[in-house]
Amino acid sequence: MSDTSIVTIEEVNTSLAPDTLIVRLNRLNKRNALSADLKRELTATARQLAERTDIGAVILTGSGGSFCAGNDIM
Protein backbone atom coordinates (compact mmCIF):
# COMPACT_ATOMS: atom_id res chain seq x y z
CA MET A 1 0.00 0.00 0.00
CA SER A 2 1.48 3.32 -1.00
CA ASP A 3 -0.70 5.56 1.18
CA THR A 4 0.87 5.98 4.62
CA SER A 5 -2.31 7.40 6.18
CA ILE A 6 -4.87 4.65 6.71
CA VAL A 7 -7.51 6.44 8.75
CA THR A 8 -7.75 10.03 9.87
CA ILE A 9 -10.80 10.78 11.91
CA GLU A 10 -11.18 13.74 14.21
CA GLU A 11 -9.87 11.97 17.33
CA VAL A 12 -7.86 9.07 15.84
CA ASN A 13 -4.98 9.37 13.39
CA THR A 14 -3.17 6.45 11.83
CA SER A 15 -0.04 6.04 9.78
CA LEU A 16 1.53 3.01 8.20
CA ALA A 17 5.20 2.18 8.41
CA PRO A 18 6.49 -1.05 6.85
CA ASP A 19 4.35 -3.84 8.39
CA THR A 20 3.37 -1.60 11.34
CA LEU A 21 0.29 0.53 11.91
CA ILE A 22 0.58 3.46 14.33
CA VAL A 23 -2.72 4.50 15.89
CA ARG A 24 -2.53 7.86 17.66
CA LEU A 25 -5.20 9.17 20.06
CA ASN A 26 -5.73 12.85 19.29
CA ARG A 27 -7.64 14.63 22.07
CA LEU A 28 -4.93 16.93 23.37
CA ASN A 29 -7.32 19.19 25.29
CA LYS A 30 -8.52 16.17 27.32
CA ARG A 31 -5.15 14.38 27.60
CA ASN A 32 -6.52 11.74 25.18
CA ALA A 33 -9.24 10.61 27.59
CA LEU A 34 -11.59 8.02 26.07
CA SER A 35 -14.82 9.76 25.08
CA ALA A 36 -17.74 7.94 23.45
CA ASP A 37 -16.69 9.42 20.08
CA LEU A 38 -13.08 8.29 20.52
CA LYS A 39 -14.23 4.77 21.42
CA ARG A 40 -16.41 4.67 18.29
CA GLU A 41 -13.51 5.88 16.15
CA LEU A 42 -11.15 3.27 17.61
CA THR A 43 -13.73 0.57 16.96
CA ALA A 44 -14.23 1.75 13.36
CA THR A 45 -10.47 1.77 12.84
CA ALA A 46 -10.15 -1.78 14.19
CA ARG A 47 -12.97 -3.02 11.98
CA GLN A 48 -11.50 -1.39 8.89
CA LEU A 49 -8.13 -2.98 9.55
CA ALA A 50 -9.32 -6.44 10.63
CA GLU A 51 -8.96 -7.92 7.17
CA ARG A 52 -5.52 -6.43 6.46
CA THR A 53 -2.78 -9.00 5.98
CA ASP A 54 0.00 -6.48 5.36
CA ILE A 55 0.08 -5.25 8.98
CA GLY A 56 2.10 -7.32 11.43
CA ALA A 57 1.96 -5.01 14.45
CA VAL A 58 -0.14 -2.14 15.81
CA ILE A 59 1.27 0.57 18.07
CA LEU A 60 -1.31 2.51 20.10
CA THR A 61 -0.02 5.86 21.33
CA GLY A 62 -1.28 9.31 22.27
CA SER A 63 -0.62 12.78 20.93
CA GLY A 64 1.04 15.31 23.17
CA GLY A 65 2.52 14.45 26.53
CA SER A 66 -0.11 11.89 27.55
CA PHE A 67 -0.98 8.43 26.31
CA CYS A 68 -4.51 8.35 27.76
CA ALA A 69 -5.95 9.91 30.90
CA GLY A 70 -8.55 7.13 31.17
CA ASN A 71 -12.27 7.25 30.61
CA ASP A 72 -13.78 10.69 29.98
CA ILE A 73 -16.71 10.81 32.39
CA MET A 74 -17.78 14.36 31.52
Give a topology summary.
Elements (H helix, E strand, L loop, with lengths): L11 E6 L2 E6 L10 H14 L7 E6 L12
Parallel strand pairs: 2-3
Antiparallel strand pairs: 1-2
Observed structural traits:
GMP Synthetase, Chain A, domain 3; three-stranded mixed sheet; alpha+beta; 74 residues
Explain what this protein looks like in three dimensions:
The chain is of the alpha+beta class and 74 residues long. It has one domain: 2-Layer Sandwich (GMP Synthetase, Chain A, domain 3), CATH 3.30.300. Strand 1 and strand 2 form a beta hairpin. The mean pLDDT is 86.
Low-confidence stretches: none
Give the helices and strands as they follow along the chain: EEHE
* Percent strand: 15-25%
Amino-to-carboxy terminus distance: 39 Å
What characterizes the major β-sheet?
3 strands, mixed
Based on CA atoms alone, the radius of gyration comes out at 12 Å
- Write down the overall mean pLDDT: 86
CATH architecture field: 2-Layer Sandwich
Short description:
With 74 residues, this protein is α+β, with helices and mostly antiparallel strands. 19% of the residues lie in helices and 24% in strands.
